Amino acid sequence: MTAPTAPARTLVEIHDGTTWVPVVAYEELTPGRGVPVLLGTEQIALYRDTAGRLYALDHRDPFSGAYVMARGLLGSRAGVPVVASPMYKQAFDLRTGECLDEEGGPEGTSARLRVWPVRTGPGPGPA
């Protein structure tokens, strides 16, 4: 009799502009929540929605300057998947990073969050 084999883990990878970098096991992400990820010197908010889709945006809120976006609330607005900032509650499109509430940030800065390419790839094996 052989021991049962643990299922292989699936890694979430974010593209850093040069290469795909594994950041966390997909199974460790809670549906409907975000987590902060450090990719080099960049802070990224990584989300897994309740349907299992992944999104990666800048972690820094452009209105408050605080690194809090991973703690935002996921939802939708007119069919658009959004995250609401936990600071001032602006909604950002998870697909484009666009702020749906204000065109510009403080003092004319951009109100758009950078979107990072994210995917799943095969993990290194059983946990």
TrEMBL record:
Keywords: 2Fe-2S, Iron, Iron-sulfur, Metal-binding, Nitrate assimilation, Oxidoreductase. Residues 99-127 are annotated as: Disordered. The keyword Metal-binding applies. It comes from the Bacteria. NCBIfam families: nirD_assim_sml (TIGR02378). The keyword Iron-sulfur applies. SUPFAM superfamilies: ISP domain. Residues 21-127 form the Rieske domain. InterPro entries: NirD, Rieske-like_NirD, Rieske_2Fe-2S, Rieske_2Fe-2S_sf. This is Nitrite reductase small subunit NirD. CDD domains: Rieske_NirD.
